[in-house]
Design a protein that fits this description.
The protein has 2 domains: 205 residues, Rossmann fold; 187 residues, Glycogen Phosphorylase B (Rossmann fold). It has 13 helices and 16 strands.
């Protein structure tokens, strides 16, 4: 079977599936990527670079900016695939992340190939992330119109895709029928053998502060520190937490950029805005901003955690939450839709209203006071992760079967 993966930052969500398919006898796997530093061969795959020839048109209508960007990328991928076709390449299956537009026109190149897309999120004017946080109200009356156009990329893919995959039921359910019925729900998978508890873990901060599990460690992780992932709520809870637990250390992982949602005005970043809001009430010597850290150190940080906090708008679920579960963290999380598949209140973690600053502080402090409850929640969380999200025994076998069904023109549906 000839399989083509398409992801602008390959491997992305396909980091386990693509190599597994490449290692299967009889398969030949190629992957298209925008990464300029990509090698020609990676874990048995042939990497095919493509380039975007230009940026967006200056002065284009702002509602059209997203669609034009995706069209430019789609054309770049289309022309590269036309070249591949002229060289005799004909894939049986194409598996793409459509979020940046590269897969828009691939069925026009290979109409006989089976196209499957990774369904991460369908934008809604109400009921999901938009308008969720009253601190950031929708002030532009045209914003619903902009979001409607932003979904054009999704809608065009519905016409050409033969099947789809989504990591969680909540994310799949953001997509409308009849396309929802084509989406199989299979998570990307967590290597729970490698991402596991480690009672002997230690971490050294600034080359001088050595931390072990004997300390009280509160952890908070985002790709970037921003409101969509509850950074502002967490920071507002910290003075209350440290007032009651003055010996605790707070380890915060995340960059200063923006992954989701608007950028702050004036060239500032969300990290500094919300830190400055509470700075005069914090013992900064116990609050450590680590920025972005290597994956091995990130797992060590989770293994070290006494209480882990995860907050999010109604948006895509972070891998970091499931990795925290797999390491056996005692978790306090927001009672928002994406969490409810993984965090069962009082069983695999504790839930708190996203905006309840006092409630968040109270739950964190109560868990710091209760080692038996932390152990119970952490053990349950790890067992849940192993049962539902284990890469080798649960997710990857289902993903491989999904691809085989797709190749046989039988798309599996969850």
């Amino acid at each position: 079977m000839k399989i083509l993966f398409v992801h602008q930052n390959f491997p992305g969500q396909f980091k386990s599936l693509a190599p597994a398919l490449a290692a299967t006898p009889g398969n030949t796997v190629h992957a298209m990527t925008l990464r300029k530093d990509a090698p020609s061969i990676w874990q048995g795959l042939n990497l095919v670079p493509y380039a975007v020839p230009r940026g967006s048109t200056p002065g284009i209508h702002p509602w059209m900016l997203d669609l034009e960007t995706k069209t430019i990328r789609g054309e770049a991928a289309f022309r590269k695939c036309v070249q591949l076709r002229s060289e005799g390449y004909e894939p049986d299956v194409i598996i793409a992340h459509p979020g940046w537009g590269e897969s828009l026109f691939l069925k026009d190149v290979w109409p006989g190939a089976r196209l499957a897309i990774y369904c991460e999120f369908f934008y809604r004017q109400t009921g999901l992330d938009v308008g969720f946080d009253p601190e950031f109200p929708v002030t532009d009356l045209g914003d619903p119109c902009r979001l409607r156009l932003k979904n054009v990329n999704n809608l065009l893919h519905f016409e050409s895709a033969d099947a789809a995959i989504s990591p969680t039921h909540w994310q799949a359910d953001t997509f409308p029928e009849p396309f929802r019925s084509r989406i199989s729900v299979i998570h990307d998978g967590i290597d729970t053998d490698a991402v596991a508890p480690n009672p002997n873990v230690s971490l050294t901060l600034n080359d001088k502060i050595r931390l072990t599990r004997a300390e009280e460690i509160i952890t908070f992780v985002n790709r970037n520190l921003e409101p969509t992932r509850g950074y502002h709520v967490f920071m507002r809870a910290l003075p209350r937490i440290l007032e009651q637990r003055p010996n605790a250390r707070v380890l915060i992982v995340g960059g200063d950029d923006v992954s989701y949602g608007p950028r702050p005005e004036g060239g500032r970043n969300w990290k500094d805005i919300y830190l400055s809001e509470v700075a005069d009430r914090l013992d900064r010597s116990h609050v450590h901003f680590l920025g972005r850290i290597p994956y091995k150190e990130f797992i060590g940080l989770l293994q070290l955690s006494t209480v882990h906090v995860y907050l999010t708008y109604p948006f895509v679920l972070s891998w970091s939450l499931l990795e925290a579960m797999s390491t056996g963290c005692a978790i306090v999380a927001s009672n928002t839709g994406p969490l409810l598949e993984a965090i069962q209140d009082g069983q695999t973690g504790q839930l708190v209203d996203f905006f309840d600053v006092d409630g968040l502080a109270a739950k964190v402090c109560a868990l710091l006071d209760d080692p038996a409850e932390r152990m119970r929640l952490g053990s349950n969380a790890r067992e849940f992760a192993r049962t539902h999200y284990d890469l080798k025994r649960v997710c990857l076998p289902r993903q491989l079967q999904w691809v085989n069904d797709l190749a046989g023109a039988n798309s599996s549906v969850s």
